[in-house]
Design goal:
The chain is an alpha+beta fold. About 50% of the residues lie in helices and about 15% in strands.
Length: about 425
């Protein structure tokens, strides 16, 4: 074995230590993973130093840079060594990729982008493509339209990385993240969430799986939250907590969602905390004119009439209820807890009380107590969520209507328009 091969093997073992930590040491050791990895990295670096005089200078610098890059923190020495590698031999793709990762840790997204693009000039490879996908989504906008273009380009890069190796879970994970960015950038459509969730599932089940990566479980939980699969979201964040015990964000997300669900149930049960007389007056105020432009029994879609039948909550079926329209009065909103989705509690003329979640709504277009709202083609969600943590069992069971497109709403007899929407319409060709 040559000295260069020996150096590479030493660093390969270090990365194996990192990548297979959970299977080798178990969950109980995860709390000490960072310290143990740093210790192992220091041991590897000392062994590498013994090989310096025997190795090719360029290869030695590359392997030394790899060893320094194994930890999550930025290292100036790592940047120095890897910069020397690509200057001495610009054809070393791994050097470009590692240097790009180092700049990313440093917070220099533009330099990272240049490195990954430099690697791709030499060789089309999955690591550069998926890394470029990640960087593109974080670049600062220089002009109008940059954000949309960068996110869609990031989807393309991630899809290309997947095509190069369908069994690499990391590439599937990055593609899932790209789709999740599309969800927030454009119309917040649940179909985009399904694409993201499908990618996350393939990432976990791939031959080179990411099932032990806390980021996978965290981001998938984010997607589940906006899909309103609250039990899956809570369990995903809980898994992220166990895989990275020192990470504060997952438990914060759990607490936020628990508060949201607690308040939703409370406000539904208490009918928005309104007095009986106020509720009685709201129920008496229902009239056919609340339908606004839907009063004629139809609406125009793509130049054609689509019929609408007025209904109440108890007559809706779970899922889509195309061809129906439901009128309600607003009891309160939950803008103090969340604006995405904008959530309010409502009552229909049969006195059924429920939640309504509205996506893509401009922050200045929210509804308030007493407003009349009519929703065409309502999407009924039935929630039955159980959660046990620290020996405390919680159970939330309620109904809600999900509105993805605010233009299907009539508020105080006036139909909302695209001016009331918050999303930026962008070409979705990258998601096909």
């Amino acid at each position: 074995m040559s000295c260069e091969q020996e150096a590479e093997l030493l660093v390969d073992k270090l990365y194996d230590f990192k990548d297979n930590f959970l299977s080798n040491f178990g969950l109980e050791k995860m709390v000490g993973k960072t310290e143990m990895l740093e210790s192992e990295a220091n041991k590897t670096i000392e062994l590498l130093k013994e090989l310096e005089s025997k190795c090719s200078k360029t290869i030695y610098l590359l392997q030394f840079g790899r060893a320094l890059n194994v930890v999550s923190n930025y290292s100036a020495d790592c940047e120095e060594y890897l910069s020397k590698v690509v200057k001495r031999d610009p054809t070393i793709v791994m050097g470009w990729n590692m240097l790009g990762e180092t700049f990313w840790k440093k917070g220099d997204g533009l330099a990272a982008k240049n490195c990954f693009e430099g690697a791709l000039k030499r060789e089309r490879n999955k690591v550069s493509l998926r890394s470029l996908s990640m960087v593109l989504r974080q670049l600062k906008d220089e002009k109008v339209g940059d954000r949309e273009k960068n996110v869609l380009d990031s989807v393309t890069c991630a899809k290309d990385a997947v095509q190069l190796d369908m069994n690499d879970g990391m590439s599937w994970y990055i593609l899932g993240n790209a789709y999740l960015s599309v969800f927030f950038m454009s119309e917040q459509n649940s179909k985009i969430l399904n694409l993201a969730l499908s990618c996350y599932g393939k990432s976990e089940s791939a031959t080179k799986s990411t099932k032990d990566d806390p980021d996978l479980h965290f981001n998938r939980a984010q997607a589940y939250k906006y899909k309103e699969a609250y039990d899956s979201a809570l369990n995903g964040w809980k898994t992220a907590c166990s895989l990275e015990p020192g990470w504060n964000e997952p438990p914060q997300k759990i607490d936020e969602l628990i508060k949201y669900l607690d308040k939703t149930i409370s406000l539904i049960d208490l009918k928005g905390k309104l007095k009986n007389r106020r509720i009685h007056n709201l129920l008496k105020s229902f009239c056919s004119s609340d339908l606004g432009p839907y009063l004629d029994g139809y609406y125009i879609s793509k130049g054609e009439k689509v019929g609408l039948i007025p209904t109440v909550m108890s007559d809706l079926q779970e899922g889509s209820n195309n061809g129906k329209v439901i009128v309600m009065k607003v009891l309160c909103n939950m803008a103090d807890l969340t604006l995405v989705p904008f959530t309010f509690i409502a009552i229909d003329k049969s006195s059924d009380t429920f939640a309504v979640t509205v996506y893509n709504l401009n922050q200045n277009s929210g509804v308030i107590i007493g407003d009349s709202v009519a929703i065409a083609n309502p999407m009924l969600m039935l929630h039955d969520v159980e959660w046990k943590d620290d020996e405390v069992l919680k159970h939330w069971k309620f109904k809600s209507i999900r509105v993805s497109n605010p233009v299907e709403m009539v508020v105080n007899k006036r139909k909302l328009t695209t001016d009331h929407c918050a999303f930026t319409r962008a070409s979705m060709s990258a998601t096909t």
